[in-house]
Write a structure and sequence with these properties.
Elements: H1 8-15, H2 32-35, H3 52-67, H4 71-83, H5 88-97, H6 100-106, H7 113-121, E1 125-127, E2 130-131, E3 144-147, H8 155-163, E4 173-176, E5 181-184, H9 199-207
Antiparallel strand pairs: 1-2, 1-3, 3-5, 4-5
Length: 208
């Protein structure tokens, strides 16, 4: 499947804020946003004011890039959010948070969502004692996510667990670092999904 392979920091600069795509680097002075607070490219510092469509598009691109989804994947998630009860924008963010790769990241086993996706696809993750290698797998309340026993000695995973303290664990997730597992306690509310996004703009974009 196609995947973005260029510099991740360019994406943060394009959106004008941190998307936390490079793990610990995003919390240091080396973060691209800290050093160059303008969009990338030859005309980055001379970009004019966005149109209404541009504002809506940028918000959608921001969310898509935060979770590392392709356009087709994102549209599929939006379509599912429309079918479900509730406020479409909030349901969309909830569905994205319930993805397995995102949960692995939220539990502190990976430094960013891209690394979490790699752990899942490389068969290092189990859900309810079953091997799952699909990053888009949707978790349900009560599901237990854990690192396979054969993978618990990996330095990367152990380092990520140690460093996860500064990022914090969401209240809707229970993380048991000592046993390399986590549990989905509840569905995340909008207030608990602490992302600097206006999901209503995405709904308006796809409604045009």
């Amino acid at each position: 499947m196609a995947r973005y392979t260029e510099a991740l920091c360019r994406l943060c600069r394009r959106e004008g804020e941190k998307l936390f795509m490079k793990g610990d680097r995003c919390y240091t002075e080396k973060c691209a946003i800290e050093r160059r607070k303008y969009p990338p490219g030859q005309h980055g510092q001379g970009r004019g004011k966005l149109s209404d469509y541009g504002v809506h598009l940028r918000e959608k691109q921001k969310v898509r890039r935060i979770y590392g989804l392709l356009e087709r994947q994102f549209r599929k998630s939006f379509a599912e959010a429309e079918r479900r009860k509730g406020v479409t924008g909030e349901v969309l963010l909830q569905l994205l948070e319930l993805r397995l790769d995102n949960a692995v990241y939220r539990m502190g086993f990976a430094s960013n969502r891209r690394e979490a996706r790699q752990l899942v696809t490389h068969c290092h993750i189990k859900v309810n004692d079953r091997n799952v290698n699909i990053p888009s797998y949707t978790l349900k309340v009560g599901d237990v996510v854990e690192i396979k026993e054969s993978s618990r000695s990996l330095n990367t995973i152990n380092e990520n667990i140690t460093k996860a303290e500064h990022r914090g664990i969401p209240s809707w997730i229970e993380a048991d670092a000592a046993n390399f597992r986590g549990k989905l306690l509840d569905l995340p509310s909008r207030e608990e999904i602490q992302l600097p996004v206006q999901e209503q703009l995405i709904v308006e974009l796809y409604s045009k």
